[in-house]
Amino acid sequence: MSAQREMKEKNLWHTPVTIIITVIGVIAIVALVTVAVLQNKPLHQKYKYGIVLDAGSSHTALYIYEWPAEKDNNTGRVEQTHSCKVKGPGISSYASDPVKAGESLSECMQEAQLKVPKDRHQETPLYLGATAGMRLLNIENSSASDRVFQAVGEALQKSPFSFQGARILSGQEEGAFGWVTVNYLDDRLSQGLETTGALDLGGASTQISFISDSFDGSESPANSVTFRLYGNDYNLYTHSFLCYGKDQVLRLVLAHLTQSGLGNVADPCFHSGYMETKNYSVLYDSPCVSDRKPSGAPATFTHSGRGDFLQCQEMVKKVFNFTNCKYSQCSFNGVFQPLVQGPFGAFSAYYFVMNFLNLTDTSIPLEVVKEKLTRYCATPWNEIQQQHPKVKVKYLAEYCFSGTYILTLLTEGYNFTSESYSDIKFIKKIKGSDAGWTLGYMLNLTNMIPAEAPDTPLLPHAGYVSFVTVIALLLFVLFIVSLRPLWPSCSKQPQIV
Ligand SMILES: O=P(O)(O)OP(=O)(O)OP(=O)(O)OC[C@H]1O[C@@H](n2cnc3c(O)ncnc32)[C@H](O)[C@@H]1O
Ligand SMILES: [Ca+2]
């Protein structure tokens, strides 16, 4: 018994030195793991916000984007969390009363204040970009356009957000940022995948943007935009046709029709039975058509429909000029365009119209699409109205024209064939965010897409923590083993007599 007591007394595990070493070892490991966990843990999920106002020709829309705060300047997902459609027309329609343009935005701005957390208001950038409506107003009356921007700027300055300015986007920017948006949302840029072309149809202009193997920008530098994104170089072909948005083309077609038969216009692009009295002055109140106003025209004309797709298409073709191409190939109006290549996303009015007509399925042969549209256009106006009592009458009256214009623009204008037509996807949103130029615009202005691919950590966070823990435990075990000479079983065994 006394020998056992003696052994216990001599048990080196119970000496103060080993106890202190063990405690220090455990504290060191706990500290190491804690620091590793805290140092590299994603910060408490805080979000940043950005707001873009799309001041289009037909209306203004506000978009709020959100992204995790620590993913600034990284491949982190920027998502659209909210959108608000401003009531009333586009800001260019307020040329004669600019203050109203500013006031029109207040409802959506109030909504934005509720959607963005209050503590983020001050640091949230707010941009307004205007497109073809303001481009046209600027051509027509630049001081009126300045006054609209002045009024809109004053209104936005009063918001709690960080207002970064209001300006007109060039057609090139509008096309290029639409392309960036589509490819960013599809993760094609960060992963260096084959890109998708972008087709945007607005009220006053239309944009086409795509990457072509045969395009290096040398033949037509005005159509070239170069980017370096996530370590990849892109040479984008882009063109914006001012006056080729669907509202302006409708004016162009009507202007053609009113050249002959003043006072009465029988329009193949409208349904039979449709009849409206319209003002010449309203029709010709746009720089796209103002030079065509017939002299001695009466104040009004009767616009009646006769629902004939083929004849409508003939009328629409007249708005394109296919002569005088000084390049190797052109789309129309002497504008250079390489052959369309790769998949395309077609958004805004492309989607609104084709979705209404149930024609978003592009695997349907183009000939069948035309047959369907022929039948739709031939449907009398009263039947159309009965079938769609809830659709805005202005839109409803124009779907036959708009569908015909879209098919003509794609096939005759941009040279999509029966085969390449199926490469087009009519889209509204991608992963919850609207397709359009606004997201690309904000990503660019906030430097959110790096030129070079960001360094990715060797291990994901969880893997890193596990790795540090295992190594720390291993070191501890090795340390304990290194103390082996001090272990009781290894020290001189007391003799039990
Ligand atoms: O790009 P710009 O040319 O400046 O014009 P916008 O931005 O105002 O143009 P949108 O894409 O908002 O709309 C394009 C057109 O589609 C029309 N539109 C909007 N919603 C529609 C719907 O549900 N059905 C049919 N047309 C619609 C709208 O009036 C325009 O003529
Ligand atoms: Ca637009």
From TrEMBL:
Location in or out of the cell: Membrane, Caveola; Membrane
Keyword Hydrolase attached: yes
UniProt keyword Oxidoreductase, yes or no: no
GO MF annotations in UniProt: apyrase activity; ATP binding; GDP phosphatase activity; ribonucleoside triphosphate phosphatase activity; UDP phosphatase activity
One GO cellular component term noted in the UniProt record for this chain: caveola
Organism encoding this protein: Sphaeramia orbicularis (orbiculate cardinalfish)
Database matches in InterPro entries: GDA1_CD39_NTPase
EC number(s) on file: 3.6.1.5
Chain segments annotated as coiled-coil in the UniProt record: none
PROSITE patterns: GDA1_CD39_NTPASE
Primary location: membrane
The protein's name in its UniProt record: Ectonucleoside triphosphate diphosphohydrolase 1
Cofactor: Ca(2+); Mg(2+)
